[in-house]
User: Fold Transcriptional repressor from Flavivirga rizhaonensis.
Amino acid sequence: MKRRKTQSQEEILEILKDSNSALNHDMLQAKLTTKIDRATIYRVLNRFSDDGLVHKVIGDDGKQYFAFCLNCDKEKKQHSHNHFHFKCLKCGKVECLKNEIDVSLPKGYTTEAFNGLISGYCSNCS
Amino acid sequence: MKRRKTQSQEEILEILKDSNSALNHDMLQAKLTTKIDRATIYRVLNRFSDDGLVHKVIGDDGKQYFAFCLNCDKEKKQHSHNHFHFKCLKCGKVECLKNEIDVSLPKGYTTEAFNGLISGYCSNCS
DNA sequence: TATTTAATGCGACTTTATTGCATTAATATG
DNA sequence: CATATTAATGCAATAAAGTCGCATTAAATA
Assistant:
């Protein structure tokens, strides 16, 4: 199934690129100039996520947030379960912290997968 | 507002204690012998969570999971935003990893809050 | 035992997200 | 360039998770 370039996708991707924070459906829709259907928005976002173009994070509110992928290796599409995301509290930027984070568990514990969101200040904002 | 001891709460708490994994609403309801209303189950669970008796985790599926609190300091009720949870892939147990985890970020980055789920094997199962 | 009010059950409702299906339009093909 | 193919879209319906209002029930207390 080959992907096609469409107006909707371009605009949504542009918004995600311009935005420096992860957006949920509502936030994204609010930024749209064109009217794009809810379902389409979700489909575009999930397609991006599947393609490794953006990452999808589930917030504490249970909603899906999407952010343009900064540090992600686009070849490896196994996004969801092997890294943390970092969100800067000042500039709002969301990044992947793929293997840059050192997780040390209590002794006897071994890590298989981890994911979650770390909040703080990035190097530009701290 | 003083808490009252009720049948429903006892049964739900018992199930959470017996279960060694975090349960969502459906899973919990399936284990009930008595019929307890959806709304009640949610209210009981959130009450437990507010009281620091159980912890609430948002899964990757966006659903709320609840697990009896093993390592949590019941005095400090600020559960939600300052620790990771660890889930053992074998025995399914969910624990708080309050300050036992060493988070080291890329240089220049500072941590304010973190939460998420780490999967692996606990000391008993690894 | 009577009183107070926390907890429950029921139903309606909200929000988030997905799916089916007919239509539109992006790409490929001749 | 015209046409065929089918990915992408819009619309409506639906699903699923969770919350809320309100009348009722039943713990705790006096």
Q: What stands out?
A: Chain B has one domain: 7-120. Chain B touches chain A through 39 residues (CB under 8 Å). Chain B has a mean pLDDT of 84. Residues 7-120 of chain B form a domain with the Arc Repressor Mutant, subunit A fold (CATH 1.10.10.10).
